[in-house]
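[Automated response] Your request has been received and processed.

Submitted sequence:
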Amino acid sequence: MKWLRTIMGGSGSPPAQPRPGQEPPLKTISYRGGVVTFRIPAHWAEEYEPDGGGTFYDDAPQSATFRLKIITVETPSPLSAGSAPDVLSSLRQAAEAPIEPLPSGCALIRYTQSTIDRGHRLLITYWSLAHVLPPLHARIATFSYTLLEKQRDDARFQHELELLDREVRASIFSPELGVTSP
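Generated structure:
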């Protein structure tokens, strides 16, 4: 990504990294014009897909990757402000992980899966976060944090996971239904 910083007028040097055990400065991501707003470490790079989805990561070797995808659904029956857990109950993951109502009115399912990609064992933590837009719409934001399975006990990645868990839970959704620009 050094070439991208050079093209975009960056210094070519990576941003300052937090010291071990120190909370990194955070930056606010207003995804797709504010459909959902959340925070990540300020030194992380951001990439956005034209058709939706965001990828966020520390531009360093062996770093983990944080991703976001959002879908908006229209339901056949009316939803109320308290229907977020019901929206998540339709997901297959609801059979294996508890649905947690959040103080914001959203609901959350958090689960972890192992997989192998190109010979590498990966561990992926997912957060599916539902937000209701009464009377007939809901959004489901799926965040994921992917790391090499051998990194699971590393303090750096445990700290990142704790930070991201806190920030996903504090995400703020737009109260408006509509399409926004990236």
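Summary generated for your ticket: The first strand starts at residue 26 and ends at 31. The domain at 25-173 is CATH 3.40.1000.10 (Protein Transport Mog1p; Chain A).
If you did not submit this request, please reply to this message.
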